[in-house]
Amino acid sequence: MAESQAYFLGMVLGLPLVLLLVALIAGHLYRDDAEELLDWRPTRSPEKEAQLHHGDVEQMLAALNRYRRLRGAPERSLEEVASRGRSGFES
Questions:
Q1: Alpha carbon separation from 2 to 8, 14, 15, 16, 38 (Å, rounded)
Q2: Could you give the CA distance from residue 10 to residue 23 in angstroms, rounded to a whole number?
Q3: From the CB of residue 61, how many other CB atoms can be counted at a distance below 10 Å?
Q4: Spatial CA neighbour of 82 closest among 70, 72, 90, 74
């Protein structure tokens, strides 16, 4: 009975530990980049990401100004919103 428990404990704890150690050693010995190993490529270029971010900012500013018009408040420009955002972080 004790022998079967020791075998079970060795398999449950020892085998995953051995696999983890082998993976860590292999990762340490692998000299190339992880991107090369995984054949990773970015899905979008940085230029495309910047365009998408700019479009998102324009949409948010348009929504802000639409609600300001409904309230009767004057519209804001991107520079006004950006300067107010920066001044909030400086205080």
A1: 10, 17, 19, 21, 44
A2: 19
A3: 17
A4: 90
* pLDDT score, position 90: 55
Tokens of 51: 């365009």
CA nearest neighbour of 60 among 83, 82, 86: 82
Cα–Cα distance between 84 and 27 in angstroms, integer? 47
| pLDDT, tens only, 11-23 | 899 999 999 999 9
- Residue with the two structure tokens 């400086």: 90
pLDDT for 88 equals 65
So where are the chain's domains? 1-41, 43-91
- According to the 3-state scheme, what is the secondary structure of 22-82? HHHHHHHHCCCCHHHHHCCCCCCCHHHHHHHHHHHHHHHHHHHHHHHHHHCCCCCCHHHHH
